[in-house]
Amino acid sequence: MSLLETVERQTGPEPRWSVLWLHGLGADGHDFAPIVPELLRPGWPELRFVFPHAPVRRVTLNNGVPMRAWYDLRNLELDQRADETGVRESIAQVDALIAREAERGIPPERVLLAGFSQGGAIALAAGVRREAPVAGIIGLSTYLPLGSSTAAEATPGGLATPIFMAHGQLDPVVQEAYGVHSRDLLQRLGARVDWRVYAMPHSVCAEEIRDLGDWMQQRFLAG
């Protein structure tokens, strides 16, 4: 399996932590690169932000139009929404990128795995299944795919990983209820989920970025 192409931003010449950030449906790795200066805080360790491009595939719910997607969307219902084959392929691709960070000197315990919408779905699914847990999982405006198999496949280390989930109360693309359902499932499995909601649509807002920065700072201090 070849590594996905990525966009990278470093905050210094010798990064000690990595943030692997997955974009949403139809976007690409450039989409969230501008968020880097908005997140940064004085005193943080040097970081490498890695923004991969999802593969191009046909998306059923978008009339089969090819676009960058982490998996096919086949149905609007939560339990049938995600194409299982695509989800598992994307989990493997994320694991390969995390392995590359280890080769570059940043082990999984100093990696934050983040994503928005479809990217957040993969971040959640990949993060709780890892044998070598990451430092934290960030899911923005998203849900947990393959929920029925998560209980059997999640690892103790994956479920012990701190999770930040945030959702817009006015989201017309991924209903807030999907996020709530996924939060509740993860909590029933024993995960620690920091859950936030904002008066926004399917997007990010300044308050959310501030709260996420606070949460990331806690991870850096703990590490």
Automatic annotation (TrEMBL):
Domain of life the protein comes from: Bacteria
Record-linked Pfam families: Abhydrolase_2
Keywords: Hydrolase
Region forming the signal peptide: none
Molecular function, one GO term: hydrolase activity
Boundaries of every Phospholipase/carboxylesterase/thioesterase domain copy: 17-216
Stored SUPFAM superfamilies: alpha/beta-Hydrolases
PANTHER family: LYSOPHOSPHOLIPASE-LIKE PROTEIN 1, LYSOPHOSPHOLIPASE-RELATED
Protein name: Phospholipase/carboxylesterase/thioesterase domain-containing protein
Gene3D superfamilies to which the protein is assigned, alphabetical: alpha/beta hydrolase
Family stated for the protein in its record: Belongs to the AB hydrolase superfamily. AB hydrolase 2 family.
Lineage of the organism: Bacteria, Pseudomonadati, Pseudomonadota, Gammaproteobacteria, Lysobacterales
